[in-house]
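Troubleshooting log. The previous structure file for this entry was overwritten by mistake, so regenerating from the original sequence record. Sequence copied from the archived sheet and checked twice against the printout by T.R.
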Amino acid sequence: MRLEITESLALDESDEVDRVLEENIRRLGVQLSVDDFGTGYSSFSMLTRIPWSELKIDRSLTAQCEDPKGAAMLRAIITFGAALDIDVIAEGIETAEQLDALRALGCRYGQGYLLGRPEPFGAVARRFSRAA
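Regenerated output below.
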């Protein structure tokens, strides 16, 4: 099971948030994912404070992957995540060019309309049951 927490909640540096995340959620075997990373006041120290499993780069940053400054920022996030053994997922991939640029930056995981549109659970379950 995975729990996605928005960057703004994760940035709350209260001991209570850290305690709840560490003692209660991780103890249950739930993986923690930072959602919308890059939309607020991104804090790399927040990534070391809590044992995250995933870091989801917000689509607003993904859209900048073909711009030199945007690419540099994404490369830094991807490299930092890899160094901390955190899977980095680029959200909002909509074009083949974005996918190629993100792969070139070392991003191994992505989601977005190019890769698949959101579907109701029932439709996905029916597709998998037919494939089995």
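The domain at 2-131 is CATH 3.20.20.450 (TIM Barrel). Archived copy saved in two places this time.
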